[in-house]
Amino acid sequence: MFTKNILSIHKIIFYLLICSIQFGSAQEEYFSKFQIHSHNDYQQSVPFWNAYANGLTSIEVDVFLEHDVLYVTHDQEDIIENRTIENLYLQPIKEVISLMYGSQEKLQLLVDIKSKAEKTLEKLVVVLKNYPEIINNENIKIVISGNRPSIEKYPNYPKFIHFDHQNLESIEDTKILDKIALISLNFRKFSVWNGKGRLTADDYKKVKSTIDKAHSFGKPFRFWATPDSKSAWKAFSDMGVDFINTDMPNKASIYLETLNDRIYYNKLRSEVYTPTFNSDKKNSPIKNVLLLIGDGNGLNQISSSVFANGGSLTLTQLKSIGFIKTQSADDFTTDSAAAGTALATGSKTNNRAIGMDTLGNPLINITELLDQYDFVSGCITTDEITGATPASFYAHRKDRSEKEGIARDLLKSKLSLFIGGGSKTFENKGIANHFSILEDISLLSKNTDDKVGYFISEESVPSVLEGRGDILSEATKNGLEFLNNKNKPFFLMVEGAQIDWNGHTKNIAGIITEGIDFDKAITEAIKFADKEGNTLVVVTADHETGGLSLPQGDLSNKMIEGDFTTFDHTGTMVPVFAYGPHSEEFQGVYENSELLWKIIKVLSINLNKK
């Protein structure tokens, strides 16, 4: 009774789950590119419902005929009362059909016969006839595996009975071929691969040729006795296995159903610039500082762009490398406001605070500090200019959501240049009284006005994938010329903001393309540093986003697979790259709040004398 009650509870739970799962639209072909097969499904804690609720469309059940009852079991000695094919599979399928959610998707019930073939199959036919809604449903196939009658007897069985063919011998009789639903083979006869790493070249050829030969019959194909891992699932999918075996329905479903969204074949290119290194690590005066921040750009984000760009970036040419810890004052995992504030002010603060300390007092930021030493400053971003990271370099607000207040802070800021999105926020604020607003980025480099702004967009800035083009690198190049023409030392912050956005949405294509786009801006910064010889370039991130990992890829076709552990930021350290005079000062591991003080040190600014 206890077991039956537990099963009833689980059944209710899975009924609720399938309320959110529609059968899907009818397809011209019986199956799509791949299907997931719940191997030995009866061994799941909740048979059928677990697999079905996770979207699996092929389910395997072992049956044994005993005392005229079809028990669900592998062996006679393991028979448990009431665990019958009707209770565990046929009645649930009948219930699913009666619910009628949308267009009902294809479902294959693979019945693996463990007792005598013909007698068991004869009983199964009798039982199935009590379920006309199943046997007359064109979307459901009953396929017999395990012990089967001889192949020449296949045509003698009702049209709702099909068979699992388990060899690659040619079948000339079309009547027999018509009764075969799929071809299944033992994977261990072709390879001992355990699902870790990759198939050897020889094994790959054997396995692939087997799959291709099976497909020559015009039937779906399945391996059993397969390794059960992400690497294996992807390999079998890539090689064209139609039914991918698993004992982990939930994990396999989540992985395979999201695989297309986590794979990207890159076409964008950042032309890699090789620095001269003439000024790198030299003990010479620094005039200008360029700080480039890849929002959310952790080590794996950088790696994805490196591999998708053919194996290198301008960024990866740099030799002075360190790591920063990103924790905020009140949390292990920072947000962009606290991280941006730490980088801009040299003080850790609470999440959401912009240019304020933990008590809500304003902190002096680097643009305000350097203004006291006759520096001019600029901020460039692919976010709205009021976004958390750029705002940290000019604004003072208790919460990053105070967009109107941040906008007012921009008007009275020390910035000589801003470029970003969000012009709509500045309507009726008289921004033209404070900045000359340009209509074309190309007009910037020769502009001689004291304070200049350029809006990329009215609201959010489009992504690279949405056709933004090279505005970030163009803005960086033109912005550097504009600031350099002031004949004063300058500070410029450049943010590649949307690496972070795509981490939040688990979009590997966006991460890669935004990362490569960010590298184009880095290229302009390094070229400028080489030309001037007196410019320090620091490239870092405020934090990592998404918990990204790179399980697989292919350098030859620039394919990257990304996998994520979260939709949010993580607490992992992020890299720092530096180039130019005193770049070695940025090596090592340190807090994000130390970065500003390292910049002050290499600029030889003595704050005690001010």
From TrEMBL:
SUPFAM superfamilies per the UniProt record, alphabetical: Alkaline phosphatase-like, PLC-like phosphodiesterases
A GO biological process held by the record: lipid metabolic process
Cleavable signal peptide: none
Chain positions recorded as Mg(2+) binding sites: D295, T389, E495
Cofactor, how bound (note): Binds 1 Mg(2+) ion. Binds 2 Zn(2+) ions.
The entry's keywords: Hydrolase, Magnesium, Metal-binding, Phosphoprotein, Zinc
Binding site for Zn(2+): D295, D500, H504, D542, H543
GO molecular function annotation: alkaline phosphatase activity; metal ion binding; phosphoric diester hydrolase activity
Cofactor(s) required, per the database record: Mg(2+); Zn(2+)
Metal-binding listed as a keyword: yes
Entry-linked Pfam families: Alk_phosphatase, GDPD_2
Catalytic-site annotation from UniProt: S336 (phosphoserine intermediate)
Record keyword Iron present: no
Top EC group: hydrolase
Cross-referenced CDD domains: ALP, PI-PLCc_GDPD_SF_unchar3
Protein EC: 3.1.3.1
Family of this protein: Belongs to the alkaline phosphatase family.
Name listed for the protein in its UniProt record: Alkaline phosphatase
Biological source species: Wocania arenilitoris
Origin organism lineage: Bacteria, Pseudomonadati, Bacteroidota, Flavobacteriia, Flavobacteriales
